[in-house]
Structures are given as structure tokens and as C-alpha cells.
Design brief:
7 helices; globular
Amino acid sequence: MIRLSLIIPAAGSGVRLGMKTPKPFIELGGRTILQHTIDKFIDIPELGQLLIVASAQNIDRVKSLVSDHDRSDVDISVVEGGDERQDSISNALKFVDKRCDLVAIHDAVRPFIEKNVVEECISKAMKYGAAIPGIPVKDTVKVLNDEQLVESTPDRSSLWQIQTPQIFKRQILFDAYDHAKNAGFTGTDDSSLVENLGIKVHVVKSSYENFKITYPIDLKLAELKVGGEL
């Protein structure tokens, strides 16, 4: 059976939400966003390991929050993050179980991922080596220069907005992070590091409901969804 290691970086702040509470610890319906996110994965049959990355001052807090998610066949650990997200994932990779075939990375504040999308990403990652969820871009996108003048308008039909979980064969992700470190390359997501190796990444069509809670409007939408009003 396929064995999956899931890394959830949960060291984000609440700055863009205008809140002092770090985003993963904001409550929705009596549970934190982080707990809602874990809920979406904990019953995935392939899940064999869960690594949650937290800032040093929040490690004990996260350990307390995940205590009710204990599954006898899933190893759950909380590890310290780094200065940047890429550093945090790199730190977490040191703890990935070698028995795991795949490694997934999922945003702590993206609590509405659908199980069928996760399963499809797992299947395609096993087949292609790398799979990520995404949705077609709805709006027209413009490329600007340094003076905020439009330089071009890309064909929208070929543009996709990428989400998480991003899932990779374990060695591919390890090689991608090693290569990025040696080359001094910083990517905007984990897939960009894998792409930098020359590996093709398969995209699985996801849902617009799998949004990341970043701004106040996102938090309001999340509250409505958890409350059953959407």
C-alpha cells in the first residue's frame, strides 16, 4: 500500500488578517483552522506520517491541538520551522519517514480541500512523480513592467491558479530541495523547485472552495462555510 508523509507548515502570522493571533490558531466554530485542516487528511488511508511545522514559541501549543488527532497507524510530530517557508519545509524533510513513498505539503490555512482531490493527487503523483491541484484562472491577467505599464496579456486558457496539497515522490522532492539549496534558488511553491529540476508536474483540477485564508474576506467566507451558511 502507498504510504504518504504529510507536511503542514503552520508558522504563519495573522498580519494580513489584521489579527495578533497566528492564522493557524484562529478558531472557526470552536476549532482552530489548523485542526479543521488536519481533519481533512487524518482519515486518508495512505497517510502514514504527519509533520506539522511550527515556530519555536508555538510548538507546545500545536502538540496540544493535535493530541485529539492521534491515530495508532499514523506517526504525528511537531517540528520547528525556519526563517522562511522553504527553510521550514527543508527542516521538516529531515524527519520524513523513509518508508513513505510520497511526501505532500499542504497549507495549514487551506481547510476546505476535498478528499477526492487529495486521492487524485496521490494517484497522479505515483504515476508521474509529481502532482498538484489547481483551478483555471477566471480573470484576465496582465504582465506589467517596473513602471506599472502593461507589457502583455497572456492567453487565459493556459493559466491555472495552483493550490495545495502538492504531492511528490519522496526522492524527487529531496533532490529538488537539495538542488535549490546548492543553486541558491527560492521558489514560490514546492512545485517550482521540482520544475527547476526539469521534471514535469501533473495538475489535478480542484475546486474554488479550496481557498487559502489570507485576508479578512477569506476568514469571513470560512466562517460562513463552517457555520453551514454557504
